[in-house]
């Protein structure tokens, strides 16, 4: 089983404070989620493999490098969409797949309503993204779907997680590396992360 990595950095801590604050409005919330996703990308891509490429500088030939494997970003709709641009800014060649899931408010089960992936995902590094890892039901289901489509190298990137969600995800998919900006205290009786940041989808899209 891979240990979950919590990526601590002063800028990430500062920006987490902005999105946790209930006074933060939609525009700043959306921009800050995207910025944190970009900052996380620097760390989560550290292990990506490179291939050599000969180029010419204005002075001479030299060996340079480029990413060896394709990267596919897969947001879990809706809230995962808020992280796409921040990652794409740094990996412009990445393709984007989508998985639509919503939590049944009563049972907290994840229900699938959409899935669409680029061709060639089997051989790509897949970055599954969602700001919130609460019960873990959505992420576990999304990874089930990705593995059914043949994805082998899957990394989960979230902003805020709960101990319950991390345990559930590690139990169901021990091969998947988990990256988070913060690991919070617990879930409340409604399955919300405490202290968390509330409903990420509603805050991103202004739906409540
Ligand atoms: O770990 P879990 O308990 O499954 O909860 C986390 C999920 O809940 C939220 O989505 P939601 O169902 O609210 O959909 P939305 O993004 O469309 O708002 C969030 O974006 C995650 O996908
Ligand atoms: O705290 C939570 C839990 C699930 N989904 C969210 O958006 N927030
Ligand atoms: Mg929501």
TrEMBL record:
This protein's GO CC annotations: cytoplasm
Which residues of this UniProt protein bind uracil?
193, 198-200
Boundaries of each Phosphoribosyltransferase domain copy? 7-207
- Any binding details for the cofactor? Binds 1 Mg(2+) ion per subunit. The magnesium is bound as Mg-PRPP.
The source organism is Haploplasma axanthum (Acholeplasma axanthum)
Q: Which reaction does it catalyse?
A: UMP + diphosphate = 5-phospho-alpha-D-ribose 1-diphosphate + uracil
Necessary cofactors: Mg(2+)
Characterize the regulation of its activity. Allosterically activated by GTP.
Instruction: Name the CDD domains for this protein.
Output: PRTases_typeI (cd06223)
**EC top class, as a word:** transferase
GO terms, molecular function: GTP binding; magnesium ion binding; uracil phosphoribosyltransferase activity
Q: What is this protein called?
A: Uracil phosphoribosyltransferase
Mind listing the UniProt keywords for this protein, alphabetically? Allosteric enzyme, Glycosyltransferase, GTP-binding, Magnesium, Nucleotide-binding, Transferase
